[in-house]
Design a protein that fits this description.
545 residues
Amino acid sequence: MSTLSGPGPAPQAPGRGPARSGPPETSRTARSHAPITATGLVVKVVLLGLVAGIAIWAAFPLIAARLWVGLAILVATTAGLGYLYLTRRHIPAKYLVPGTIFLIAFQVFPVLYTASTAFTNFGDGHRGSKDDAIVAIETSSVKQVPGSAEYALAIATTGDPAAGPLVFLLTDPATGRVSAGDADGLRPLDAADVTVAGSGRVTAAKGYTVLNVGQASVRSEEITALVVPTSGGAVRSNGLSRAYEGRAVRAYDRGCDCVTDGETGRTWTADPDTGSFVAADGERLAQGWQVGVGLKNFARVLTDPNISGPFFGTLLWNFAFAIGSTGFTFGLGMAIALALHSPRMRGTNLYRVFLILPYAMPSFAMLLVWRDMFNTDFGLVNNLFGLGVDWFGEAWSARLAVLLVQLWLGYPYMFLVTTGALQAIPKELTEATSVDGASPWQSFRAVTLPLLLVALSPLLIASFAYNFNNINAIWLTTEGGPFAPDNPTNGATDLLITYTYRLAFGAQGAEFGLAAAVSIFIFAIVATVSAVSFRRTRRQEEVYS
């Protein structure tokens, strides 16, 4: 029945612990809403402003090309990023979204674009639309005829005089007006922005660099090929100081969907299946347009004897090269790592420095050095060992040479990863096998090697996939040769990737659709091998876990 004279602790409910007060009561939600520092706010504003600027810059080409789906995706993505990073919610997404965007932009989109290209005839002569092809056909057939308008010509560029896009600066002798012309057409120039010599030739123009005679002569082929379309025909150069507006000899007739030559009367009819204008005797005009061809590119790879025969022969060597490069480098790297892992070895740090030197050197430079070292006449290999082997002149010697080069370039990597894996193997396991009376070889085969393979199998699979498409190793040493006299497109050391490059971008012009189809075959092969290998790796992990 006593009464407390002063304030005491608050009463507690039965079964509950003591009440907490003060800073410890700070909740997880309150901590998650901690104020952003001034530096963090500035960084966020700058990055979001950069994203908005890039989006605005990318929107104009999409609008010009009427790609409304792409524009909608751009707007939605930009708005989503703004919402995500301007709120304090969805913390995990703030870290996952940038990586996902880069994955889509640099992995998923290129793969999908390559796959879609494989079903088209995209390539030289079939790059644009049908309207583009018609314009190209008509302008390329322009000839000077009696009464053609002539202009004083100055060659200019908007960039580097040696490589920038060419522009014709044309002066009309009748009116004195100056126009700038390129493949997109003519644009009048303000008289205040140009300086015209007494001959009518432009000597200076605002926004353009006028080429002198020497600079123009170097690019004479480009100047001759440049055609400026006009309403009455097209403008072509006649030397370096004069130009004429000629008439197109070949014209498109929409009624028959054909191109007719006004001089010869010859007609080429549009073929929607191939994206070409074809004459009655099968002749095709060089300018065509891009169309879908279905599975024709894939069928061509498998059924065309000029492609399928070399393709499957190259595939066998490709497997041998990838397996040999990976296996030999792993074997040598593992042997050196085991030797240096022995406690009886001295000076291991010095050995490691020398052993990783090939890994530290630029591979493309060392490939060129090795190419010279295998030279028959003055190469170091023949001179050092007193040999007379024509390394790159015979099929098997060239293949052996590229495998030796790969061994030298690749073993340091395998040495490094094997050294790390050996450090993770408990010594008790190998000591236990010694106690049981196992020899060093039995201990290595039963304990060390299986555990190494469990740890390094993903790296070996990745190395196989890399070597399967290792274009540098072949292109910078043998360029795919030696070549048979009757087959200059497929060499003894060609991989599928180098064979595809030569096939698709050879003298006949670029064939991106065919190259994309072969790329899909390569992707399917590597993906299948990798999937099977990873499945076997998981089984090994289950056994030795």
